[in-house]
Amino acid sequence: MSVRNVIIVGSGPAGLTAAIYAARANLNPLLIEGYQSGGQLMLTSEVENFPGFRDGIMGPELMAEMRAQAARFGTEIITADATQVELEGAVKKVWIDDDVYEGHTVIISTGAKARLLGLENESRLMGRGVSTCATCDGFFFGGKDIAVIGGGDSAMEEAGFLTRFANKVYLVHRRDEFRASPIMVDRAKANPKIEIIVNTVVEDVVGEDAVEGMALHNTVTGERRTIPVEGFFVAIGHTPTTALFKGQVDMKDNGYILTSENKQHQSATNIPGVFACGDVQDDWYRQAITAAGSGCQAALDAQHFLEGLEEAAEEAAAAA
After folding, report:
1. Arithmetic mean of pLDDT, 265-272
2. 186-220: string of b/e by CB count within 10 Å (b at 16+)?
3. SS (H, E, C) 118-187
4. How far is 204 from 216, CA to CA, in rounded Å?
5. Taking a C-beta distance cutoff of 8 angstroms, is the pair 45, 128 a contact?
6. Candidates 97, 99, 137, 186; catalytic one
7. Residue 301 annotated among the catalytic residues of the structure
8. What pTM was estimated for this model as a whole?
9. Among this protein's residues, is 277 annotated catalytic?
10. What are phi and psi of 275, to 5 degrees?
11. Are 197 and 172 in contact (CB under 8 A)?
């Protein structure tokens, strides 16, 4: 099989946008989208903050439109998981089981997964009151009582942000000490809309078709109670999907892929010809629109890299 110009691993907003740009540049990209394609938006109900959809759009519908757009411009899409990569050298290799695909460039867009509590109803009610993104979904909970679960800076930030919309925010933490910085804890304690509940674990999310409450267990007193809430935000961190690339590309201490600060190639990794975009390298914004933007950057960076290879080959031929 011939060496491809671009192989994209991962198919959320970043990977699909990279595919669209690469395909429109006549680079004939190969997109290995994974069996669970589409990224975290596949777990989201209505998306109202993605530009161009005045009345909002369902997350899975948005991803289906982006996928169809990538295919329209000629992206070859394989619905399977990449199982092995070899990124060093001029030709990079990506395996799907026993099949190997070779490319001059690779764009990594495998995303990150929000950590969940593992409750019985948590996944079932995802997008129906359960959320992992306050910025994405806070607007839907105006005037309602909601809960934020976690004890780090992210939980404090999300609780504070959600008070802009909610009537009341319960901040539930399993211990009596927080991982969050003291200033963030002080802000939460000073906010009249936030009620902090410590030494408490959530045993389940209550509700049939939507979140109606949370079942709590105080680990010190043994008390069990159910508090009515209509929103349930899990803020216990994210895990980047980077296991496939460990030992090959440089990563931050938290496991996210480290990309360059070079203004001309912001998506570049430490390996020439390998780029990363979206939540796999973004541990701060984690928005669909920023992921899509970084996918555009990665495709343009790959295009420029390939142009450099062509120029080098022409110069070598001329010198010979």
Report:
1. 94
2. ebbeebebbbbbbebbbebbbbeeebbbbbbbeee
3. CCCCCCCCECCCEECCHHHHHHHHCCCEEEEECCCHHHHHHHHHHCCCCCEEEEECCCCCCCCCHHHHHH
4. 8
5. yes
6. 137
7. no
8. 0.82
9. no
10. -125, 155
11. yes
Q: How many CB atoms lie within 10 A of CB 170?
A: 22
* 133 part of the active site: yes
For the chain, percent of residues with pLDDT exceeding 70: 99
Which residues, including other chains, have CB under 8 Å from residue 223's CB and lie 6 or more apart? 217
Token digits of residue 105: 């460039």
Exactly one of 133, 277, 279, 282 is catalytic; name it. 133
- Overall size of the chain counted in residues: 320
Residue 168 tokens, joined: 């009341």
264 band by pLDDT with thresholds 50, 70 and 90: confident
The residues with which 306 forms a beta bridge, in sequence order, are none
Q: What is the pLDDT of residues 217-234, one digit of tens each?
A: 999 999 999 999 999 999
Residue 124 backbone phi and psi in degrees, to 5: -60, -35
